[in-house]
Design a protein that fits this description.
Elements: E1 9-13, H1 37-49, E2 54-57, H2 84-91, E3 99-105, H3 111-124, E4 129-134, H4 140-143, H5 153-171, E5 199-200, E6 205-206, E7 221-224, H6 229-238, E8 241-244, H7 249-261, E9 274-283, H8 287-298, H9 303-313, H10 338-351, H11 355-362, E10 369-373, H12 375-387, E11 393-396, H13 403-418, H14 431-435
Helix pairs in contact: 3-5, 5-6, 9-11, 12-13
């Protein structure tokens, strides 16, 4: 029966223009999309009208392009964007149900800042906030925070593990009913329901308590995206949602099994952690129409933008001196996003791709699953991954915005609902409730 089928959790991954490298050049995309609140308000309200679980904003506290080739910014797609907590705070006032998730780095922030900001967002939104924990993959961030070099991978994850322990400890500063606000007796709070953290660790010394009442959700939803062994272990111990880049069913199944198998040793159940691979749905009313949409975007990629994009995927290596139609050079894995680097290099080696062919292949979704076809085709893939332990839902990555979201809502969602694979309306008031996650 349709009602017995596993339903997809769907989060909209928002970039200003869309996820295709050349989306900003598409005629349907507003010229000032990255700095237009009206544009993001429109996207957020469309996502809410579609009953999507949440909108999600990634973030990097640095310019995206490599320091070695700053001239490539002339053709770049992501020259600037809003700070996401500020943006989500504004969007919380013009939405009522859709979740609000964004990235904040554990490498270039302090735990008290993050705990306070996301608790505040959770109160502002009446329980719809989520924090995507990252350790930062872009080495350019180091120079913006007084450091000569990016911390190495192992140190970043050690710091991240302690960081999230401090943040959750701060979120536990007050019991749910600690603030009495009793005007008759004059008692503002019950001091017996205060928990002072007094954390002393290898990277942090934080006394606490947090100077805001306990979050409506207990904790804002905790999201992670690391695919390395360290990343999976941290997610199994602390995360509610995991984002991942997987291009094949088999690879997605292996990741799903790997991260879920780690939960028991941390005293958690499999349903306590949702695995959401990214998907780039390019939908048309026919296969030919969908392929025409993709072809139009591919033709808009400037070669210099393509090389700069590929360079960023490979950890910042300078590719400007290589022939764009020659092979991908031998480059070492850096201390950035190792999983993504390995994925790109493996594909280039396996299929004998040139630099141009490589950036064209990954231009749509940076290594995420790209499905080009009709609503039925895309729904078939979503069903297959749900039914074969490859996903609990998806991180939607439209190629262009708002058009790609509009097409997905108009064409794919009705098909998923007809099959019993997606809700017709929100079940709860908070993000945790709609994701089916327990309240801490």
């Amino acid at each position: 029966m349709p009602g017995d089928r596993k339903q997809a959790k769907l989060i909209l991954f928002v970039t200003a223009n869309g996820h295709h490298l050349a989306a900003w050049r598409h005629p349907s995309v507003p010229r000032d999309a990255g700095h237009s609140f009206a544009h993001f308000k429109d996207i957020a309200q469309r996502a809410e009208a579609a009953a999507l679980d949440a909108i999600f904003f990634a973030d990097v506290a640095a310019f995206h392009l490599p320091r070695e080739t700053p001239e490539a910014a002339e053709y770049g797609a992501r020259a600037g964007h809003f700070e996401p907590i500020t943006l989500l705070s504004a969007l919380s006032a013009v939405t009522t149900r859709v979740g609000l998730i964004c990235t904040a780095s554990t490498t270039y922030n302090e735990p008290y800042h993050i705990a306070r900001k996301f608790a505040s967002l959770d109160h502002l939104s009446s329980g719809r906030a989520g924090w995507n924990l990252v350790t930062s993959a872009n080495p350019n961030e180091a120079a913006n925070f007084g450091k000569e070099h990016h911390l190495d991978h192992d140190k970043r994850y050690r710091r991240a593990g302690e960081f999230i322990d401090v943040v959750t400890g701060l979120w536990d500063s007050w019991a749910d009913d600690a603030f009495l606000r009793d005007k008759d007796t004059g008692r503002q709070l019950d001091p017996t329901k205060l928990h002072v953290l007094n954390h002393v660790g290898s990277d942090f010394r934080v006394r606490g308590p947090l100077n805001i009442a306990r979050s409506p959700q207990g904790y804002p939803v905790r999201v992670q995206a690391g695919s390395s062994d360290d990343g999976q272990e941290l997610a199994a111990r602390t995360a509610d949602v995991v984002f991942t880049a997987q291009r094949t069913l088999q690879g997605a199944q292996a990741f799903y099994r790997s991260v879920k198998s780690r939960l028991a040793r941390h005293g958690r159940r499999e349903q306590d952690l949702l695995v959401l691979p990214g998907i780039v749905p390019i939908v048309g009313r026919s296969q030919a129409e969908a392929e025409a949409h993709l072809s139009e975007l591919q033709q808009l990629i400037h070669p210099r933008a393509g090389l700069a994009f590929l360079s960023s995927l490979l950890g910042g290596v300078d590719l400007s001196k290589y022939d764009v139609d020659g092979p991908v050079p031998e480059v070492p894995l850096t201390d950035g996003s190792r999983g993504r680097q390995a994925l790109v290099l493996d594909a280039a080696r396996r299929d004998g791709l040139s630099l141009r062919q490589t950036y064209l292949r990954f231009a749509g979704g940076r290594g995420h699953l790209q499905v080009v076809g009709t609503a039925q085709t895309i729904a078939d893939v979503i069903e297959e991954w749900l039914d074969h332990e490859a996903a609990d839902g998806f991180n939607l990555m439209p190629a262009v915005l708002p058009g790609g979201l509009e097409d997905f809502a108009e064409l794919v969602l009705p098909e998923l609902r007809r099959r019993g694979r997606f809700r017709s309306g929100y079940e709860g008031d908070t993000l945790r409730e709609n994701l089916g996650l327990p309240r801490p």
